[in-house]
Amino acid sequence: MKYLVILADGFADHPIERLGGKTPMMAAKTPHIDQLCCISKSGMLKTVPDSLHPGSEVANMTIMGYDAATYYQGRGVLEAAALGIDFSEDDLVFRCNLVSEEDGILLNHSAGHISTEEAKELIDELNDKLGDDRVQFYSGVSYRHVLIVKGGQNGIQCTPPHDHPGEKVEDYLPTPASGHETAELLRDLMMKSKSVLDNHPVNTKRKEKGKAVANMIWPWSAGFKPSMPTLKELYGLQSGVVISAVDLIHGLGKLGGLQSVFVEGATGLFDTNYSGKAEAALKALEENEYVYLHIEAPDEAGHEGDVDLKIKTLEDIDQLVVKPVLEYLAKHKDDLSIAMLPDHPTPCEIRTHTRDFVPFMIYRPGVEPDLVQEYDEESAKKGGFRSLDQTEFMKVFLSGSK
Ligand SMILES: [Zn+2]
User: Fold this and answer.
1) Å from CA of 48 to ligand 1 middle
2) How confident is the model at residue 270, as a pLDDT?
3) Same-domain pairing of 219 and 233
4) What is the pLDDT of residue 314?
5) Do 98 and 187 have their domain in common?
6) Which of 8, 9, 19 is nearest to 307 (CA)?
7) What are the angstrom distances between the C-alpha of 148 and each of 70, 138, 139, 193, 216?
8) Quick one: pLDDT at residue 266?
9) Which key words are in the record (predicted)?
10) Total structural domains in the chain?
11) Residues with CB under 5 A from ligand 1 (ion)
12) DSSP state string for 160-207
């Protein structure tokens, strides 16, 4: 048996008045998704453990079959894995933003979405001036980088910078719950990063062009390497791939022993190369047992609060992803299982993730479809799988029953 997960990030939503109380999933014209629903069995799934925030990395981890409350160790380690950084058990790994600071105020979390090339120069300079046997910076994409502190102590409270633009830096510096020495080191690095970066030629040029400068580091979401079993060890899956435009999802896949497939034109936005991603997924199924096709676009539309755009992303997924998948399924009806679901809702009205249960459907040869014929937040509640809790989903997907 082969397994295809179509993960439409942030797909689910709330009823919207302007749509006559329908959700975007209900309002979108999605004949192929409905067709898949008619041969599938659906239900509702809890993807976020009570102890964690409803982040995509947490929810996707659950859907891949990991108990996130046990294995989630922060964004830093996932991004480090995605960048192919080789780190060991005693490395404390942080996501490290390049941010803009002025007169003690955090202006923004992204240094004006600085380019990867400019950022790399700054990260190299930071390593030159502040790096040593213990402290090492690794450059990633745009403002998103990694800081590793060898032998660091965890138990530090760091704040995500995107939650506090326009506020005082000193109110959100790393504070020790237990790791006093490491918290002190981080504060020191943040302050020193200012003098290294402030007058760097990259920033001088950005200032001249009226762009936001990248004049401070902001480490957060610390963790140690999770002792995650691979999907092979956990579920006996022989081979698998992740297709995504998002680093965190690739990092998750790598820690789970999956290969990364990158598709040209995959942007993570509404203009992504849907057809190319579907094609890559079907090609990967020829060689692999498990394919995780992650599509970020609906989540971004939800964050924008753009209802029409969200409906468009759903209709594009229907036409450009689910349609070719159904054509492929027609030739592989007896040896392909398909699951479709979002990781969490990103309701347009609130423009952020919620921890509500998500609607899912599973097609599996030999599993009798239920009577649900439309795939949306309400219909799935009447589905044959009723409601599932976290890792139960993977068990059901791989075996057909709980
Ligand atoms: Zn998400």
Assistant:
1) 11
2) 85
3) no
4) 97
5) yes
6) 19
7) 22, 8, 11, 15, 16
8) 85
9) Glycolysis, Isomerase
10) 2
11) 9-10, 56, 299, 343
12) -GGG-TTSBGGGGS-EESS-HHHHHHHHHHHHHHHHHHTT-HHHHHHH
Ligand 1 centroid to residue 15 C-alpha, Å: 19
- 98 close to 119: Cβ distance less than 8 angstroms: yes
Which of 166, 191, 223 is a domain's end point? Answer: 223
345 C-alpha to center of ligand 1: Å? Answer: 8
CA of 209 to the centre of ligand 1 (A): 34
Same domain, 287 and 325: yes
- Say how many Å lie between the CA of residue 385 and the centre of ligand 1: 23
CA neighbor of 162 nearest in space, from 174, 172, 170, 154: 172
Please enumerate in sequence order all residues whose Cβ is within 8 A of that of 250, keeping only pairs 6 or more positions apart, or say none.
Answer: 81, 82, 242, 244, 260
- Clarify whether residues 125 and 145 are in a common domain: yes
Q: Which residues of the chain have pLDDT under 70?
A: 179
CATH number at residue 390: 3.40.720.10
If you count them, how many residues does the chain have? 402
DSSP sequence for 334-357:
TTEEEEEE-SS---TTTTS-----
Both 53 and 89 in one domain: the answer is: no
Residue 390 burial class via C-beta count within 10 angstroms: exposed 0-12, middle 13-18, buried 19 and up = buried
**pLDDT given for residue 100 in this prediction:** 96
Say how many Å lie between the CA of residue 223 and the centre of ligand 1.
Answer: 20
124 C-alpha to center of ligand 1: Å? 31
* Residue where a domain stops, chosen among 187, 206, 223: 223
Distance 208 CA to ligand 1 centre (A): 37
Residue-level pLDDT at 30: 98
Tell me the residue range of the domain where 211 lies: 80-223
What is the dihedral sign for C-alpha 293, 78, 13, 45? positive
What separation in Å is there between the alpha carbon of 246 and the centre of ligand 1?
10
Q: Are residues 170 and 296 in the same domain?
A: no
- Give the model confidence (pLDDT) of 71-125 as tens digits: 999 999 999 999 999 999 999 999 999 999 999 999 999 999 899 999 999 999 9
Exposure string for 218-253, b = 16+ CB within 10 A, e = fewer: bbbbbbbbbebeebbebbebeebbbbbbbbbbbbbb
